[in-house]
């Protein structure tokens, strides 16, 4: 069980490991480009080498890339749709270049197409991410990545997709009918899950939630936890993170999550607000 936070790459991704070390991270997450779009930052062999050496220097073995916010694998706008497919594939290529364990992504919204058509398009998008560019749609040839692709559970605001275990399990199952060798997994965000209706406020409800996750998705699919308290109320479908112990999940709930033995080998990444990562990390390490 390691704790870390999302860190900035301002100046270069080579600076991210030191920033992670300075706030007490044991693992970390970052955007490899602006989360709002724009030109992707090139990661040359030299940059990748320097990044890896910095990670070695600070004994940071596990790190993760988060895709940009604009991702929508269910968009009716093909520029956004194909751009999202390309962006996720690009992040997986970068992850392999620098040795990241996984790429975390949101999935998109059904607002353009409605639930059924959006679902079909999203699954096709997941398949395209793992397709070799040289293969035709009728002759699928899979591209293998070393890094996993983790689908992040959402708070379910509006028509955002992926806010419940059944939906995520369905996406994975259907996509893997084609991508046999895929490394699809799940990133469990505690604030999102809580806001989408999964209670995490005490030992009993935490056990129930992860029992359900195991039954529907499979605990072996769980690749990362975003550990955030929630400003938003339970089942409110609002995405508002809070600092550890300050929100509606509370200290008792956070402790119960850390005590669940099924999660003991996972990394926990903070995305808490107010620049209090140092304080939040100290709380978690104290609990451990």
Quick recap:
This protein is 38% helix and 15% strand.
In which order are the strands of the major sheet placed? 1-2-3-4-5-6-7-10
User: What gross morphology would you assign?
Assistant: globular
Poorly predicted ranges: none
If you compute it from the alpha carbons, what radius of gyration comes out, rounded to the nearest whole angstrom? 18 Å
Structural class: alpha/beta
Q: Report the portion of residues in β strands.
A: 5-15%
Average pLDDT value?
94
Instruction: Tell me what the CATH architecture is.
Output: Alpha-Beta Barrel
Assigned CATH class? Alpha Beta
Helix content: 25-40%
Largest sheet: 8 strands, parallel, barrel
- Count the E strands: 10
**What's the name of the CATH homologous superfamily?**
Divalent-metal-dependent TIM barrel enzymes
How many structural domains in the coordinates? Answer: 1
Number of H/I helices: 9
The helix/strand order is EHEHEHEHEHEHHEEEHEH
What's the CATH topology label?
A: TIM Barrel
Give the CA-CA distance, first to last residue. 8 Å
Description:
- 38% of the residues lie in helices and 15% in strands.
- With 288 residues, the protein is an alpha/beta fold.
- The chain has a single domain, classed as Divalent-metal-dependent TIM barrel enzymes (TIM Barrel).
- The model has no long low-confidence stretch (mean pLDDT 94).
List keywords for this structure.
globular; alpha/beta
């Amino acid at each position: 069980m390691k704790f870390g936070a999302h860190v900035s790459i301002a100046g270069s991704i080579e600076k991210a490991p030191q920033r992670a070390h300075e706030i007490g991270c044991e693992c970390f997450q970052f955007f490899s480009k602006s989360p709002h779009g724009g030109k992707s930052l090139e990661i040359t062999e030299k940059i990748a080498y320097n990044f890896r050496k910095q990670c070695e220097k600070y004994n940071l073995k596990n790190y993760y890339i988060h895709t940009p916010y604009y991702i929508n694998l269910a968009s009716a706008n093909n520029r956004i749709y194909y751009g999202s497919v390309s962006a996720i594939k690009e992040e997986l290529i970068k992850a392999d270049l620098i040795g990241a364990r996984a790429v975390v992504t949101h999935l998109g919204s059904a607002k353009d197409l409605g639930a059924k058509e959006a679902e079909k398009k999203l699954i096709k998008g997941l398949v395209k991410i793992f397709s070799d560019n040289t293969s035709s749609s009728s002759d699928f040839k899979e591209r293998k990545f070393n890094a996993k692709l983790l689908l992040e559970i959402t708070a379910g605001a509006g028509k955002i997709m992926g806010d419940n275990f059944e939906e995520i399990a369905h996406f994975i199952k259907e996509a893997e009918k084609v991508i046999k060798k895929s490394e699809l997994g799940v990133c469990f965000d505690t604030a999102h899950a809580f806001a989408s209706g999964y209670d995490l406020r005490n030992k009993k409800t935490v056990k129930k939630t992860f029992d359900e996750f195991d039954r529907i998705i499979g605990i072996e699919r769980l690749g990362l936890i975003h550990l955030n308290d929630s400003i938003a109320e339970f089942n409110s479908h609002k995405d508002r993170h809070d600092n550890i112990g300050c929100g509606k999940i509370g200290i008792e709930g956070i402790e119960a999550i850390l005590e669940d033995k099924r999660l003991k080998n996972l990394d926990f990444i903070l995305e808490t607000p107010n620049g209090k990562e140092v304080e939040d990390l100290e709380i978690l390490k104290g609990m451990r």
